[in-house]
Amino acid sequence: MNILEKINSQITTFSKSERKVAEVIIANPEQAIHSSIATLAKVADVSEPTVNRFCRRLDTKGFPDFKLHLAQGLANGTPYVNRHVDETDGPDEYCAKIFESTMAALDIAHRNLDIGQINRAVDILTQAKKISFFGLGASASVAQDALNKFFRFNVPVNCFEDIVMQRMSCINSTDGDVVVIFSHTGRTKPLVEIAQIARQNDATVIGLTAKDSPLGRECNMCISSDVPEDTDLYMPMASRIAQLVLVDILATGFTLRRGPKFRDNLKKVKDSLRPSRFEKKENFS
């Protein structure tokens, strides 16, 4: 785990002033590398001793040593591809690295998961009159997966990738509607506006996004996977997988909360699909 991953995984344990330092570094790590301790302290609106204390919390000897670790972390991987994969890697190496880094990211997401927020989200979803799933870019595919899961649950659902359709849907929202927005960074401006519109029209907004992000602050509640992946520099990979797992968790909670009678309806859906498939070949060996 490099220094940026440590910051992301430990951010909830920092003091208020230390978190300010962390947020400045996460927002622009390249600039942090070239900053003096005085400059970083000023940008974060903290004292220089606070910056040093923050650095020691991350097992570095001080600010110069911290910057060295940060530079080494940023130098890893292949920009615009994956931080864990080098340009010279062959199929064996990049296959292993992608699997290993994804499993590590899911472990971080599991350890940082707020079960109370999951339980509350399941409560909200099971009582919804209508559920809308929205995302853009890589998160749009996650929203589509959520639609596929919840479409069979006998509750009105929709999913739009077009931002204009998302806006119109939220304008027509009412009390009892739920809007679920997917965004790893929580910094996508159109999605922040969508959350604002939905809340102005009395919908409940659940954000599967970064804590304390602009989007997270506009949602009624926020579920974060805390996966340390810089999608500004690399292709979304592990963060997208973590979002898909969160969809599976919410869908599972939804079905269990509805009880055995509701699962009978799911059986009917499965039975209706059976004629569309070839029979499975049984292996009796």
CATH topology of the largest domain: Rossmann fold
Helix content: 55-70%
Distance between the termini: 45 Å
Q: Which CATH class of the largest domain is shown?
A: Alpha Beta
**Which percent range describes the beta-strand content?**
5-15%
Count of individual helical segments:
14
| CATH hierarchy: architecture of the largest domain | 3-Layer(aba) Sandwich
Measured on Cα atoms, how large is the radius of gyration? 22 Å
Mean pLDDT score, rounded?
89
Largest sheet: 5 strands, parallel
Instruction: Trace the largest sheet across and list its strands.
Output: 2-1-3-4-5
Show unreliable segments.
Answer: none
Q: Helix/strand/pairing class, anyone?
A: alpha/beta
The beta-strand count equals: 5
Compute the number of structural domains. 2
> How do the helices and strands follow one another from N- to C-terminus?
HHHHHHHHEHEHEHEHEHH
Descriptive key words:
285 residues; alpha/beta; Arc Repressor Mutant, subunit A; 2 domains; 58% helix; globular; transcription regulation; SIS_dom_sf; DNA-binding transcription factor activity; SIS_dom; DNA-binding
Give a short overview.
With 285 residues, the protein is of the alpha/beta class. It is built from 14 helices and five strands. Helix content is 58%, strand content 9%.
